[in-house]
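User: I'm putting together a small comparison set for a docking exercise, and I want a reference complex before I start. The sequence is below, and the ligand is N-(iminomethyl)-L-glutamic acid. Could you produce the 3D structure with the ligand included, as structure tokens?
Assistant: Of course. I'll restate your input first, then give the structure tokens for the complex.
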Amino acid sequence: MKTLFKNIKQLLQVRDANVDFVGGKEMKVLPKIEAAYLLVEDDRIAAFGSMDSCPTDSVDKVVDASEKIILPSWCDSHTHLVYAGNREEEFKDRINGLSYEEIAKKGGGILNSAKTLQETSVEDLYNQSKTRLEEVMRLGTGAIEIKSGYGLTPEAELKMLHVIERLRQEYPLQIRATFLAAHAIPTEYKNNKTEFLENMLSKVLPVIEAENLASYVDVFCEEGYFSTEDTTRVLKQAKTYGLTPKIHVNQFNAIGGVGVGVAFNARSVDHLEILTDADLDALKGSRTMPVALPGCSFFLGIPYTPARKIIDAGLPLTLASDYNPGSAPSGNMNFVVSLASIKMEMTPEEAINAATINGAYAMNLEQEVGSITVGKKANFMVTKKLSSPTVITYAFGSNNIEQIYINGNLLDD
Ligand code: NIG
Ligand code: FE
């Protein structure tokens, strides 16, 4: 099956196969072709270029994209999309003056979500999660990472990982699973964190290996949650099972988690709302991707990750949604890129690079998605009639997307 998209006003993010991410000044450059064509064969990008060189051989379908922009699907490298219920009551508590930390200290927060998840059947959890996955696919997400971490018992963590695996089997987009082994300390282990971790790791890691349930391991490295020593313990054990770290660090406090992540060759270090010069130095020269989650800063009213400081230091940056019930109850990547421009001083080009090619790298999917490159998956969005790509981040809250293609297939409404 061959489909030709022609008369494309702008074809964005056109790259050679050897570009795996972009950093520093390069992030301001979003390579594009004006008046372009794009040829899709089955599930892959077969060719693209200027309309002057548009192929004339017969194809099965022609789509006229006059006045429209085509860009790769969003690559959302950090989500907790598998969860049960929501936290609307805590949302009201926050409106009435309680802080996120205060709610967590009262036994709310992650512990509240874990209790609900433990009481939810695997079937119900799957159904709730697939609704969210379908929602974000319609919003342009074409590759996604999903974490466990709301189980807090080995059984419930495995329930989450099995749900992620079922989503992976049943949906066409690329899904990467992360075992979030240390997200919060259950009340019964309050004074025995080590036992909690040992029990979790010894019971879950062998099953992950046997059933191939995850590629990554994660820890919430934060004051009041897990220390750098705890983080080291988890990453060390998970490494022996072939899991790569992608960790939560520096959300509220900088306690050295960035350095630990880099030392373990983490694929990414995520959050970074608080960032010291030592953290920045640790990242320089590494292959670890810094990831910002502006939806979380927006929702909790905490600082935004200092994007300018990171990019101006020559480093790359990824944007992801953090879709979860407690700190970012939205997986809308269109809003995430708008927030990055509006609140983090990222140009539209930087934001789009951060949410496509760099997001793909943060999931180790840069050979498959994240750019318009011959041989990559035909995962892309056709916008409505737009004056320029700037509108994508400028017109926050608007739906600028007309069509979504995943593996070369049009996603129906
Ligand atoms: O990435 N920071 C840790 N985990 C999630 C939020 C967890 C929750 O409140 O449910 C995050 O923000
Ligand atoms: Fe998160």
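The CA atoms of residues 221 and 249 lie 5 Å apart. Residues 109-110, 113, 220, 248, 251, 296, 322, 324-327 surround N-(iminomethyl)-L-glutamic acid (ligand 1) (CB under 6 Å).
User: Thanks, that's exactly what I needed.
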